[in-house]
């Protein structure tokens, strides 16, 4: 036989739910800050990748133009 449930104080319930909501709000805000930083990093990586592809294309083009067998 299980013991009877204990009545929890409204103050404790309020504290629990307040902590839960504050934790969710903090997590959301923290995620937004990290997302902004990550967006900057990804933009930099994409820019570097595009520059690298340009260099490869230019190198490829210069190889084909410089050939005496064309």
UniProtKB/TrEMBL annotation:
Top-rank taxon = Eukaryota
**Which parts of the sequence are annotated with region: Disordered?**
51-70
Q: Name one Pfam family in it.
A: ATP-synt_E
**Any one Gene Ontology BP term:** proton motive force-driven ATP synthesis
The molecular function terms in GO held by this entry are: proton transmembrane transporter activity
**What is one GO cellular-component annotation here?**
mitochondrial inner membrane
Chief localisation class: mitochondrion
Coiled coil (residue ranges): none
Name the keywords, alphabetized: Acetylation, ATP synthesis, CF(0), Hydrogen ion transport, Ion transport, Membrane, Mitochondrion, Mitochondrion inner membrane, Transport
Bias (Basic and acidic residues) occurs at 51-64
**Subcellular localization:** Mitochondrion inner membrane
The family note in this entry says: Belongs to the ATPase e subunit family.
Q: How does it assemble?
A: Component of the ATP synthase complex composed at least of ATP5F1A/subunit alpha, ATP5F1B/subunit beta, ATP5MC1/subunit c (homooctomer), MT-ATP6/subunit a, MT-ATP8/subunit 8, ATP5ME/subunit e, ATP5MF/subunit f, ATP5MG/subunit g, ATP5MK/subunit k, ATP5MJ/subunit j, ATP5F1C/subunit gamma, ATP5F1D/subunit delta, ATP5F1E/subunit epsilon, ATP5PF/subunit F6, ATP5PB/subunit b, ATP5PD/subunit d, ATP5PO/subunit OSCP.
Q: What does it do?
A: Subunit e, of the mitochondrial membrane ATP synthase complex (F(1)F(0) ATP synthase or Complex V) that produces ATP from ADP in the presence of a proton gradient across the membrane which is generated by electron transport complexes of the respiratory chain. ATP synthase complex consist of a soluble F(1) head domain - the catalytic core - and a membrane F(1) domain - the membrane proton channel. These two domains are linked by a central stalk rotating inside the F(1) region and a stationary peripheral stalk.
Protein name, entry field = ATP synthase F(0) complex subunit e, mitochondrial
């Amino acid at each position: 036989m299980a013991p009877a449930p204990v009545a929890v104080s409204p103050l404790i319930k309020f504290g629990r739910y307040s902590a839960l909501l504050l934790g969710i709000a903090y997590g959301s805000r923290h995620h937004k800050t990290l997302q902004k930083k990550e967006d900057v990093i990804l933009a930099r990586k994409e820019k570097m990748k595009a520059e690298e592809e340009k260099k490869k294309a230019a190198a490829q083009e210069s190889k084909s133009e410089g050939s005496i067998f064309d």
